[in-house]
Design goal:
Blueprint lengths: L1 H11 L21 E3 L1 H6 L12 H6 L15 E4 L2 E4 L3 H8 L1
Antiparallel strand pairs: 1-2, 2-3
Length: 98
């Protein structure tokens, strides 16, 4: 319900949320995480995933402990700051993208 209110507020005055009236500028494109398709991921070969392919969200949520290392799934690949990260699930991917 709360998200519906936020959507309606945005739709009433969308120009308030984008430049030049937005209170903060949008970050440059390379500073925004981007989901990668399997074909995009393959094109980046031989570039390796960060954290040796373990899910960065699970690791961060687990206080960066060894026990929190969970292998990522290549269906949930992200490129951020010219680095590749592999998340465990769509839920973790969405959390990374926020």
């Amino acid at each position: 319900m709360d998200s519906r209110k936020k959507l309606n507020k945005f739709l009433e005055n969308p120009e308030l949320y984008v430049p030049p009236l937005a209170p903060h500028p949008l970050p440059p494109a390379d500073m925004i995480p981007k989901r990668l398709t399997l074909s995009e991921l393959k094109k980046r070969f031989p570039k390796c995933a960060e954290l040796q392919g373990y899910c960065p969200v699970t690791y961060q949520d687990g206080n960066q402990r060894y026990e929190a290392l969970v292998p990522g799934n290549i269906k949930y690949a992200i490129e951020y700051r010219d680095r590749i990260y592999i998340c465990e699930s769509n839920e973790k991917l969405q959390k990374f993208l926020r």
